[in-house]
């Protein structure tokens, strides 16, 4: 019976081990699911739609080939569509069955040209930018030579743009693959169970052999009875050998390899061999960084309002690029280079500084743009253009005041430009703003929902600078602790005393040409950036008297060392305010300022 049980155990062990091995070999499912598409035509751009990327669950491995150079970027589907605009392009999307890819080519759309009353063309000139590489719209981009392969985890609402250089045809061979779940949760239990039965069968087999050996031993002598006649002597049997009792050793030889195979298989078992524990909400795999700015709690809000213009990693990349370019341009006084990343008042101040330093290198360079991370990121909620983003950079050196950047993107193919670069006041307390994943709506310049419409803030503050407490707007502003106002009053007093005998000094302040930018805060107020210009006019009153330019910057910019007529200097102020909501008991507070001379000339 023991031999029967051992044989049954060996058979079951062989079956279980065989099934376990088969699950990892002949019955093993493919490790990936793949779909391919070949784009016909010669369009410069190909869009891999979000539906194609979601054909199978899990990370997407994208491989593109078929061109000398390849470019791949991913971003919001709406942003990619806006960037392409009316240009010819192909769209690769999921087929009707969801198990294949289809490609549709769209030809370029030519907008009919209209004519103005004077005969000139009224059709906007198309943007000349055709190469998508380096665009601020992309969440991330990659480039390569003849082929390019990257693994991403892109959720719904994110698409991929494929191109060469924006002029040559885009790579036409596209393959998408996803890692498939080919785990075999019963392979491990079958192999372990088979090994256990194999060991049990071996034990039963040894016990059966021992029992058989004991059963063949000589029996004990019986009690003495009547003496029998002596029989003739016969030859004694030969001593039995172990092999004569147990038979062949081949069963043992067969068992050993099975044990070795089982041990080797079990030693290579991984998590794919075993049933997995239930996946909890907190153990899900995170996706590719930053493609989706909305969190679960914010999903309802995100469906009701436009998305934030940028994500935090996207903006940090943009700020890093701007900082690198600015550092190089400041060092070489490259006006053409700085104009590719600055605009408005910020550009005017920097270009003037370049002119001054070209004459007098001892003049200090403008403040540098710090390096991320960003302490505050406030993008505009917008699906259209232009778009505005506010970012505050706090350096590790706390003695350096934080810098506020107001960035503006005019169109999908334009990059973000620094419109305002403002240093925060030492005691400034920026108001609470929405998370970067939600963003803030832009406030209309003439909004009546604030204590003062944004487009009136510059004029009102300019009047406070000039007239002080006599200004009608003085009560609206938090003047206590306003270092910029205090410095303006002190500078005017000192300058007036200096020129009291030889010349007259006149000051004028007014709203500058810079655009007003306003983004909402959590308390229904707004952060407002404005431009104010200060004009200082020195007029000589004595015929033989002369006046000198005030400072090295004025001297280098005007090109004179002294004047018998007088000098006029114009300073540009970039100012950042917090404007509370209408009806609030708070006051308009200056958060930061940056001042720079933009003009200095002798009076005619």
TrEMBL record:
Residue span(s) of domain DUF8094: 309-598
Disordered as annotated region, ranges: 280-308
Low complexity: bias regions: 280-289
Top-level taxon of the source organism: Bacteria
Keywords assigned: Membrane, Transmembrane, Transmembrane helix
Cross-referenced InterPro entries: DUF8094 (IPR058407)
Chain ranges passing through the membrane: 186-210, 253-274
Signal peptide extent: none
The keyword Coiled coil appears for this protein: no
Entry protein name: DUF8094 domain-containing protein
Originating species: Cryobacterium roopkundense
């Amino acid at each position: 019976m023991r031999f029967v049980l051992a044989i049954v155990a060996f058979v079951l062990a062989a079956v279980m081990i065989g099934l376990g091995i088969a699950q990892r070999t002949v019955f093993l499912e493919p490790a990936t699911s793949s779909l391919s598409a070949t784009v016909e035509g010669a369009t410069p751009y190909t869009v891999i739609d979000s539906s194609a990327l979601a054909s199978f669950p899990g990370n997407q491995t994208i491989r593109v080939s078929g061109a000398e150079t390849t470019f791949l970027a991913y971003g919001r589907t709406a942003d990619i569509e806006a960037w392409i605009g009316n240009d010819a392009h192909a769209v690769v999307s999921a087929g009707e069955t969801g198990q294949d890819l289809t490609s549709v080519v769209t030809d370029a759309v030519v907008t009919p040209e209209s004519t103005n009353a004077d005969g000139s063309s009224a059709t906007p000139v198309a943007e000349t930018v055709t190469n998508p590489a380096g665009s601020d719209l992309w969440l991330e981009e990659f480039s390569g030579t003849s082929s390019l392969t990257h693994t991403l985890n892109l959720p719904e609402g994110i698409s991929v743009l494929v191109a060469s250089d924006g002029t040559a045809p885009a790579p036409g061979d596209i393959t998408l693959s996803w890692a498939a779940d080919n785990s075999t949760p019963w392979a491990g239990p079958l192999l372990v169970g088979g090994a256990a039965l194999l060991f049990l069968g071996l034990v039963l087999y040894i016990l059966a052999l021992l029992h058989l050996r004991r059963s063949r031993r000589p029996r004990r002598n019986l009690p003495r009875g009547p003496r029998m006649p002596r029989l003739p002597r016969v030859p004694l049997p030969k001593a039995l050998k172990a092999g004569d009792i147990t038979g062949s050793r081949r069963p043992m030889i067969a068992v050993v390899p099975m044990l070795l195979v089982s041990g080797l298989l079990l030693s290579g078992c991984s998590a794919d061999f075993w049933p997995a524990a239930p996946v909890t909400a907190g153990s899900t795999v995170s996706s590719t960084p930053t493609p989706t700015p909305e969190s679960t709690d914010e999903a309802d809000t995100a469906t009701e309002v436009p998305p934030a213009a940028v994500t935090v990693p996207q903006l940090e990349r943009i700020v890093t690029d701007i900082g690198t370019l600015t550092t190089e341009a400041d060092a070489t006084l490259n006006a053409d280079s700085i104009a590719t990343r600055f605009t408005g008042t910020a550009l005017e101040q920097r270009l003037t500084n370049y002119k001054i330093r070209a004459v007098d290198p001892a003049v200090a360079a403008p403040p540098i743009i710090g390096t991320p991370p960003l302490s505050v990121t406030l993008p505009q909620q917008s699906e259209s253009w232009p778009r505005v983003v506010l970012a505050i950079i706090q350096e590790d050196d706390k003695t350096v005041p934080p810098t506020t950047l107001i960035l503006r993107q005019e169109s999908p193919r334009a990059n973000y430009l620094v419109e305002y670069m403002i240093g925060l006041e030492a005691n400034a307390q920026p108001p609470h703003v929405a998370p970067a994943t939600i963003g803030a709506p832009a406030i209309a310049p003439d909004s009546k929902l604030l204590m003062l419409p944004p487009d009136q803030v510059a004029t009102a503050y300019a009047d406070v600078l000039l007239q002080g407490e006599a200004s009608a707007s003085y009560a609206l502003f938090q003047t206590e602790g306003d270092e910029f106002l205090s410095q303006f009053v002190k500078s005017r007093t000192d300058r007036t005393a200096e020129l009291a005998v030889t010349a007259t000094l006149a000051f004028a302040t007014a709203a500058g040409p810079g655009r007003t930018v306003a983004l909402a805060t959590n308390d229904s107020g707004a952060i407002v950036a404005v431009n104010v210009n200060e004009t200082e006019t020195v007029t000589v009153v004595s015929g033989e008297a002369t006046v000198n330019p005030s400072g090295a910057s004025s001297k280098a910019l005007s090109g004179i060392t002294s004047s018998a007529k007088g000098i006029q200097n114009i300073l540009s102020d970039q100012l950042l305010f917090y404007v509370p909501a209408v009806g609030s008991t708070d006051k308009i507070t200056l958060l930061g300022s940056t001042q720079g001379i933009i003009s200095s000339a002798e009076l005619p």
